[in-house]
Amino acid sequence: MTEIIAIANQKGGVGKTTTAVNLSASLAVAEKKVLLIDADPQANATTNLGIHRNSFEYNIYHAFIGAKNLSEVILPTSLPFLDLAPSNIGLVGIEKELHDKNIQNRELILKNLLAEVEHKYDYVIIDSPPALGTTTVNILSAATSLIIPIQCEFFALEGLAQLLNTVKIVQKTINPKLKIRGFLPTMYSNQNNLSKQVFMDLKRHFVEKLFRFPEAKGGIEETSEFIVIPRNVRLAESPSFGKPVILYDAKSPGSLAYQELAYTLLKDTNG
Q1: Fold of 3-270
Q2: Confidence (pTM)
């Protein structure tokens, strides 16, 4: 059974693309067949995998408007178990285009596209744009689960209620199978009091939705039993080299955190 994981938060700069790329790569290194769908017009997930925006003719936009099947836009990557459906700036106009064409069930386009290819993969991971428009609703309608990255900085929880409300509406109306896999604290620094405070707020309100290490780890830090993505130079550098961090520096703290997240998902799936 394919798990389709949406990585979503309407706030920008919270680590959605970093999470989508590096979770996908970590699962692929564990020899799980993964499709990463870049549904963000900024196309950062595409370039993060070393695929230049001018090196392909068709992208997820062409699948959305019905010009191509999803299988026709999928590209291989440098990781044997990881494929990519790339994005392009053209996707920025998709909301208006779908609205103007008055397409019926336009919130189900991605779900219907995935029906052609999802059986080929263990995981489909979808990087979403920083908005709650038609594209994100499509993503939530297609997904079986949702990971919400939350930056450990000021205003981190702002807008979260709106996202959770959108999730509830999608669950009630379109996709009752959608479940929240968890909240993922990102850009955490144990040297920073604000980081610690944001994490404590998350823990107080959503402790059951934080990812825990599959095996207990010792430590007195507040975060010691939970998976958090640290602020990490190697993690921040890796996109400029067109590589997920596991291929850039597999032993860096950022890479190890995403490997732990992948291991947690695999352990949950395998019981």
Answers
A1: Rossmann fold (3.40.50)
A2: 0.93
